[in-house]
Write a structure and sequence with these properties.
Blueprint: H1 2-20, E1 53-55, H2 63-66, H3 82-95, E2 99-104, H4 131-145, E3 149-154, E4 157-158, E5 174-175, H5 180-196, E6 202-206, H6 211-214, H7 224-240, E7 248-249, H8 257-266
Parallel strand pairs: 1-2, 2-3, 3-6, 6-7
Antiparallel strand pairs: 4-5
């Protein structure tokens, strides 16, 4: 107890000393090994901070998390419950983040091609009551209610759902769409549906997650030109439907900087 009192007295004395000397700065701090010092300049660098963001997983209520987990470590973990969701939302509110990124597959609302014309949307052949869309709507509802901006990142075509737009060589859980015009129409459908249903929280579309490793042809070669053509098709399709000015396109979502820079130069 005496030791604690002495420490407290020293802390208080130090505080009074600092207060009495006009806020004199201490010596330069010692940065522990493994840490990096970040100095925040007093003057603006001209760049705008949009806020703090997170990835909010839209798979919480899809089949991925609705079956009991396997393996010894998680053998007693069951599906995500409503109680779990309430806990997630309460913690998300406490975090107070400003924007999120979430995953979208076209097959969640267009399980079959709406029609053979990518310039005409047949709303009667779309389904917004699928498991994927119901799960995604929970996140959209949360963001709309809590003024959180949403980036919808499309993951190409879903090989697990045997997408109608899968290329014949798809071997992963996701693939590059074989028809860029149809893919652009799918994303346009999503933007229009969000707007028609009051989801103004949707602010950005990322047309493909990390395209630099995924945009390959049948020989396994990366083909940026096909990605660029898809991005242009998306711009044109959104414009034709009158919603281009209502959404931002984030086209630099690659895992290597040179790809991002070249994409921006090509599409400038």
């Amino acid at each position: 107890m005496k030791i604690k009192k002495k420490i407290a007295a020293c802390v208080l004395a130090g505080a009074f000393l600092l207060g009495g000397c006009g806020g004199s700065k201490l010596d330069e701090p010692v940065i522990p090994e493994g840490y990096v010092r970040v100095d925040i300049p007093e003057e603006s660098n001209g760049k705008q901070l949009r806020g703090i963001g997170v990835h909010f997983d839209s798979h919480l209520f899809t089949y991925v998390n609705q079956a009991p987990f396997s393996g010894e470590l998680l053998k007693d973990v069951g599906p995500i419950t409503e109680e779990d969701w309430d806990l997630i939302c309460s913690r998300a509110k406490l975090m107070g983040f400003d924007n999120i990124r979430t995953m979208v597959y076209p097959e969640w609302f267009e399980p079959v091609n709406d029609n053979d014309d990518p310039s005409v949307i047949d709303w009667d052949n779309l389904n917004f009551e699928t498991e994927g869309m119901k799960a995604l709507r929970r996140i959209l509802d949360f963001c709309q209610e809590n003024d959180v901006a949403v980036n919808a990142t499309f993951w190409g075509t879903n090989a697990d759902l045997t997408s109608w737009n899968n290329p014949p060589w798809v071997t992963s859980f996701t693939g590059v769409p074989k028809d860029a015009q149809e893919y652009a129409e799918s994303m346009t459908i999503f933007v229009k549906w969000c707007r028609d249903n009051g989801y103004t929280c949707l602010r950005e579309i990322t047309p493909y997650n990390e395209p630099n490793w995924a945009y390959k042809n049948g020989e396994g070669q990366v083909v940026m030109v096909e990605y660029l053509e898809m991005c242009k098709a998306l711009h044109d399709r959104l414009t034709a439907e009158g919603v281009r000015d209502q959404i931002q396109l984030n086209l630099s979502d690659s895992s290597i900087s040179p790809w991002s820079l070249e994409v921006m130069e090509q599409l400038n």
